[in-house]
Structures are given as structure tokens and as C-alpha cells.
Amino acid sequence: MLQKKKNAVLVDGVILNGPIMDSKAGEKFVEEACKIIMEEVIRKADDVTEKVCEWRAPEALKQILDLEMRDTGESHQKLLQLCRDVIQYSVKTSHPRFFNQLYAGIDYSSLVARFITEALNPSVYTYEVSPVFLLVEEAVIKKMIEFIGWEEGDGIFNPGGSVSNMYAMNLARYKFCPEIKEKGLSGLPRLVLFTSEECHYSMKKAASFLGIGTENVYFIKTDERMAANMVVKCGRLRNENQCIKRDVKYSGSAPFLVCATAGTTVLGAFDPLDKIADICEKHGLWLHVDGLLKKCYSAKAAYLFQQDKFYDVSYDTGDKSIQCSRRPDAFKFWLMWKALGTTGLEERVNRALALARYLVEEIKKREGFQLILEPEYANVCFWYIPPSLRQMEDGPEFWQKLHQIAPIIKERMMKKGSMMLGYQPHQGKVNFFRQVVISPQVSREDMDFLLDEIELLAKDL
Amino acid sequence: MDERAGIGMTAESNRLEHPGLDKAAGEEFLREAFQVLLDEAVRRGTDVTEKVCDWKEPQELRELLDLELRSGGEPPERLLERCRDVIRYSVKTCHPRFFNQLFSGLDHHALAGRMITEALNTSQYTYEIAPVFVLMEEVVLAKLRELVGWSSGDGIFSPGGSISNMYAMNVARFHRFPESRRKGSWALPRLALFTSRESHYSIQKGAAFLGIGTDNVHLVGTDERGKMIPEELEKEIQRAKAEGAEPFFVCATCGTTVLGAFDPLGSIADVCQRHGLWFHVDAAWGGSALLSSKHRHLLAGIERADSVAWNPHKMLTVGLQCSAFLLRDASGLLQRCHGAGAMYLFQTDKFYDVTYDTGDKTPQCGRRVDCLKLWLLWKAAGTEGLARRVERAFAFTRYLAEEVKRRDGFQLVLEPEFINLCFWFVPPSLRGREGSPDYWPRLGKVAPAIKERMMKKGSMMVGYQPHGAKVNFFRQIVTNPAVTKDDLDFFLDEIERLGRDL
């Protein structure tokens, strides 16, 4: 592996002349690993005769997978086998019958972009290190802002919606009282924020992480349509509130943010944004974005954001982020958009909603299936009531028994590997299935299969 | 050209009977793109005869890339062209002459791991969704903890060292004030945290983000080698207490960003113990030195820390991002601090042991799988192979330091302890003129000028920065295992060539 030349330069016992890596062998490995990916993941992605998951209990899987990290390396063949094992026992989230989460499926252009990203391994903090990806991010954010309907705006890609929500909370807080960046929250009035009781749990995590406190998140009741209604709550708190001035003692709480949800996690509900916006405007809870992102987060590290660079440093947008190194997440979206065009993306969304509507109609037709509510979006929530429970009277015993049905069906489907579908209890309702259609691979027959398979798996319950 | 003839569309995609994707076309596109990637990003990207970067001004690059997102799609040939353009105009961070950041290089096994990760596209929150990766993450974290010196503990992979540092701050706050999670920091006394002047800026960002406030970050003095002075830490803590603040957290740095300095962990641990403060070690950069029996002494005392941040995506060439947040506590503190128990994700009536659903330990919900690339690399190289890489990086730095001392016009800023090599290049016109009043301002203009020239030429990339009272100097970092002595000789020769006439 190390070359020994006549004029070997030896430092601290290490020969420095030749490279330590065998690039040829390495490239071969990458090629062969990608062949495995093509065969085992990509080609099989739409094959409904393949399993969605190869279920093994944790202790059993630990035995099968040779996870131990040893002192010496493994052979080329062994490493390829390890890759095969990892793929075999991983859940196939691109399978047409993977409905478990709010992500699924495969898009080829996005995947290509992701592979390119990995090969280039950039970090999106400065123009000098990632010129292309910074400009791509800027273009994508601009386009997304256009869709929202703003004339101008700002933004950044983050490691997840939870972090994006944290950014919003922090920015709102900063806008409300910029001194918090330096002084912190200690001794300030109790900052409070409003969100619906259906909101994503990242609001709670964000409140605690940011030092606001989960107690100071007010969860507004949702109506039958499960959308927010905040007038009463907001008004009451406003009466208690007084001006925030550093030198003025005051009591009470300070509302500073409202978080509405467009597409709640379980039910897929959309808060009535216009009405909420009216309330926010009335109470001065509205967030305008103008250079705020940069002011709020900037730390101006001199070793990274040098001001004497030879190019326009306003392109070094990395200081808008809480992160230092950052992945170019906008690129995969950009390449997919280029491949499909806005029209193509729109068709994907419409298709997913059309499939959801089809499923809803089928559920209504079939005995034993009961819709929780008419879906507004792509989440279809329903109970499956097995034959044995259909004649039972509505009462605590019925609901308790029904609560146990979904987990059993879930266990059976996973052990069989035929599909994956999420269930949960919610707002006083016992365990029900939450079906979400996202993947462009999914077709009508997969919706039929879904219902058939549930019936099949629950026959004897 | 049919605007809709993209690989994402089929004629029947409006009908629900058929899939909404053209699989054959998609796979063909993938195959061709993979070839482009292998040839142009991997092979050419690591080839010394190729450029490190193809410099373009922002406005020009915008036009070249044709960034606009339109209503119609594009055919595969056009998309492949775009892929080529993206690769061409991106900086080749895997190039043997890319020395600009604390990461560089390309490891083929890690790359394979990253590509498998992308193809499988899953989130790391529950066992049902990511069975292999939940188990794997635990094994990898345990290995890292073992190297730190802990036989048990906890941890998680996070989206970067900045966020790992923030987790440490949050867990420390929660540990001291469990009610802070519910009540928030407004009800707490004014907290104080301590870190060195040389620490990473994520400590400031973290303090602001967490609602603690950057004013309450006490920057402790460092010696001429950039190391925290424990006596100064003691003084700062006393001062904070006298002002009525409540110290709760100390962050020592192992491998500072600019100078690569290591804080004296043993003495700092003593101070923390004395005052009952959470002791966090930001070893994002220097943590990988633990792999080498020769060099791990730099982190002596790390086992006394309460938490450690360590980024294998830096020195181990694993690929962004891979940042481990490690915790000595094994009582479930991380879960208690961050857990929300969302019933739609962490159901308690699942048919398997739900303690394997580790996703609630983190403030994130969906989370990337960052363990596979490190695990596969480790399987390929073994702990010994990784140790050799670390030692090689040290040896390279030693070689460069000696060369810098030997050559005219090169001046070390300080003797490197780690693999940050900091030096000035003094062009002939300034040599011997240290006495003149404008020496330093003029010297400060040299590095930016050389940087501009090297980037426009595309021959290499190295970072520079001012630091404290010191004017701009170069910070040379070698982590790429593909680098050879020739590259280092070239590096110094090229600086001479580019700076000769300044």
C-alpha cells in the first residue's frame, strides 16, 4: 500500500512520498456498490412482488449484521456483502406500498442530484467553497417565495422542519426584542406563543430548546375541521400585557409568535391562514423579513467570513445560519424542478390527492372501514373494524378492543413485509390508520391492495 | 422539443392505473449520470493535473448555470449537461490541493456508504423505519465513546458540530435546572457559560439561540499557543458569580479552528469539578487524534468530560455531515431533556421493544442517516487504518513546518501542535523590513492577493484569516489521505510563484 522509493521521506516513522490510498481499488468499489444499489434498491423500487421490509427483531438483527468495528479492515468482497446486508434489512421507503411516513418514493433526478452532492461533498457557507450551490439555493428560495406570494423575502435550507420552526421562533423573538440575542431571556417578561393543538411536536421541542419553555406554548383548540381558532386566547393575554422596555418593570406575558400549520401531521388539516393573519396584524404579532435573518444569526467569524475577499462577500450567505458547515439541500429540489418543471410538480401533487380521493371513496364503499373525517389533503385517516367487532355496541369496551386492532395488523403486515402503514391514537380517538400517498410510483391498484391486505390480515381478529 | 418530455413524466401520468414515473427512462438517466459523476467528480476531481476550482464571478456563473425554474421540464440530455456544469463549476474538495477547510478529500468506501444512504432515503427516528441504522448508530457511538474513555454513555449524531455544541449547552442547562424545559429561561437566574477566546463561534450562536444571550458567554484568556488558561477560567467564574450570574457550563476546545490548539483538559476538569459546572469538550476538529496512540495525549483528561462533540466528517474524510454528540450520562438524560413522546411516531404499543426508537432523544424529528458512511469506512480501514491516516496528517504537518522554517520568505506563526499549519509568506519586497511602520498592514494584503491568484488559476485553495492582532496569515490543513509529499512541495512552491512579485 505504501510505496517505498529510493528517496523516501520519513517523518515520525511515516513515509510521505506516495498516496496512502489505492484509488483504483476505491473507484472499483464505488462502481460495484452502485451496481448493487441499482439492482437491489432502484430496479426493485416499484416491484410489488418484493417485500417492503425484511422484518427482524432487534436482537436477531444484531446477530445477522456483523456490526462490530474492528482494528483491521475487511476485504473488498466482504465489504460488498456488508452493503448487500445493509440494503436487504433496510426498509424500502421507495416501495409502492410504503405509506408509513410523510416521505416515500423515489425520484430519479433528485437521486442523481443527491449522488452528485455526495461525490462533491461541499459545504454551503461561502461562495469561494460552494459557488454553484449557493446560487442554486438562492434561486430555489426565490421561487418558493414567489409561490407563497411575497414580493421579496429571504430564507435558508435547514436540517429539517423542526429546525426551520426553531428558526422562525428565534427570529420572531429577535424581531420582538433584538437585545435578547446578547442579553438572553433571564429577567424578561414571559414570552408566549400560540399554535394549534394539532401542531407538530417540534413547536414544543423548539420552545424548550430556545429557552422559552413548553409551558409558554399555548395550544389553541381546534374545531371540527381541526383548524385553529385563537381570538379568545389572544385577547385575554393581551389585556395582561404591557410594553416591553428594558428599564420598565412589568408583569404579565408577551405574545410574540403565532404558528399556524398548513398540513398537520396526523389529519393533514390546514389552519385558516387569512383569519389568523388578521388577528396577528391586529395584535402586532406579524413578522416582516428584511435582513432579519442575517442580523439575527450573524456571528461574523473572521476566519470564514473575511471582509477582504476578492469577490463580493454578500454572497457568503452562510452566516445567516445557526450552522457552520451545511449541506446543499436546495440542489436536489432544483434539479428535480428542472426535470419536471412547475407543471410536472403540480401534476405529482394532484396525482397524490387524486389517489387519496379514490381511496376515500373505496373506504366508504367497503364494509368494516370507517373514515375518521373527510380529508382536506393527502392524509386519509380511518379505522378498520374487523368482523367480530362490527355487531358490538358503541361503548368503552368496543373502543378498547378496536384500539388493539391496528397494532396487530401493523405487526402482521411488517412480519409479512407486504406493506407499511402508520397508526396512532389521537385527540381521544383510539388507534386508527393514517394513510399518506406521496410516491409517484403508487397507483390505483396499490390503493386497492391496501384495503384488501388489511382485510386479509385482520380476517381472524 | 416537448416540454414535458422529462424523465419524471409519462403520457399516462394523469391516470391512476399506471405509475406516475417513467422507470426505464429514469434508470437510464441514473446510469448515465452515475458515469458522469464517476468520471468528472470522482476521477477528475481527485486528479492533480486538473483544476481545484474553475473560478467565475457570481453574476457570470448565474448566467452559465441558467438557474431559473420554469413551468416546463427538460429532457435527460439537457439534465445531464446541467449535471456536468454543476460538477465543473463546483470546487473539488476532494482534490489533493484543496486545503481550504477543516475537511477535504474523498474516501471511496465512505462515498459508497453515502450513496447507499441516499438511495435508501430513510429517517433515523424509529426501529421500524430504520432497523439497520438504529442498531448501527448505537455501535458507532459506542466505539467513539470507547475512544473517549467511557465504557457506557449516550449520544446521537447531529447535523453538525455547531448543533452538537448546542445540545451540550441545552442538556447542561436542563441538568442544572430541570424545570427550565417547561418554564423557560426567563424564570432562571442569569446564566453564565465559559469558553476560550479561540473557541468556535457556534458557542456564541448557541448562546443566542438557546436564549442565554451572547453577553453571558465569558471568553477566557488563552496563552501564546492559543490554549485556555485554567487560572483565567477560575477568575472568570469568580467574576461572574460576583456579578450575580450563575455559571453552569464550560466548553473546552480540542483543536481550535484557526491555530489547532488543545485546551488543557485535566486542569479545566478540576475547575469544573470544584464549581460543579458541566464540562463539555468541543473536539469536533481534534477528536480524531484519539485514534492515534502517538497523539491522543493531546486530549488527555477527555474522559472526565460530561459531553463531547466529535466530527468524523472533518479529519476522517467521511463526508458532510457526521457529527457525534457524546454523553457520559447513561441514565437517559438526553431523552428526558429532549423527548416529547409524540404519539403518532413513538407509540408505546408497538410490537417490538420501543427502547430501540431512539429518535426522541434529539430536537430533530426527521433525521438523516449519518452513521453508515463512517461505519463502512471503519469496516474498510479498521481502527488501525484510521490511526495511520491520522498519524500521516501529523507527519505531513511536521514536514511542512520544517520546510517553512527552511525556506526564505516563509514564517511560522507558531509551532503546530496539531495539523493546522499557520504561516506568513513574506514576498521579497518586504523581506528584512520588519522595522518599517507599514510592514504589517502591507503583509496583511499579501495572503488575499495570493488567494485570488490561486483561485483564478485554479491550482489550489488554502485559507487565510487575520487572528487577534496578527494580520492575515495562511492556515494550511492536510486531512486528505490522497495527498503526497509532492503536493506539499507544490503548495509552497506555488505560494512563492504567485507571491513573488507582490
From TrEMBL, chain A:
* Pfam families per the UniProt record, alphabetical: Pyridoxal_deC
Cofactor names: pyridoxal 5'-phosphate
The record's InterPro entries line, in alphabetical order, gives: PyrdxlP-dep_de-COase (IPR002129), PyrdxlP-dep_Trfase (IPR015424), PyrdxlP-dep_Trfase_major (IPR015421)
Q: Name one GO molecular function term.
A: carboxy-lyase activity
Q: Which Gene3D superfamilies match?
A: 3.90.1150.170, Type I PLP-dependent aspartate aminotransferase-like (Major domain) (3.40.640.10)
Q: Which keywords fit this entry according to its UniProt record? A: Decarboxylase, Lyase, Pyridoxal phosphate
Where would one find the signal peptide in this protein?
Answer: none
Ion transport as UniProt keyword:
no
PANTHER family, sorted: ACIDIC AMINO ACID DECARBOXYLASE GADL1, GLUTAMATE DECARBOXYLASE-RELATED
Q: How does it assemble?
A: Homodimer.
Which family does this protein fall into?
Belongs to the group II decarboxylase family.
- Name it: Acidic amino acid decarboxylase GADL1
Q: Which organism is it from?
A: Grus japonensis (Japanese crane)
Automatic annotation (TrEMBL), chain B:
- The signal peptide stretch is none
Q: Which InterPro entries did the record assign?
A: PyrdxlP-dep_de-COase, PyrdxlP-dep_Trfase, PyrdxlP-dep_Trfase_major, Pyridoxal-P_BS
Tell me which Pfam families the record gives. Answer: Pyridoxal_deC
Its domain of life?
Eukaryota
Q: Which cofactor does it need?
A: pyridoxal 5'-phosphate
N6-(pyridoxal phosphate)lysine PTM sites in chain numbering: 314
Q: Which keywords appear in this protein's UniProt record, sorted alphabetically?
A: Decarboxylase, Lyase, Pyridoxal phosphate
Q: Name one GO molecular function term.
A: carboxy-lyase activity
Quote the subunit structure annotation: Homodimer.
What family does this chain come from, according to its entry? Belongs to the group II decarboxylase family.
What name goes with this protein? Cysteine sulfinic acid decarboxylase
Q: Which organism is it from?
A: Grus japonensis
Lineage of this protein's species?
Eukaryota, Metazoa, Chordata, Craniata, Vertebrata
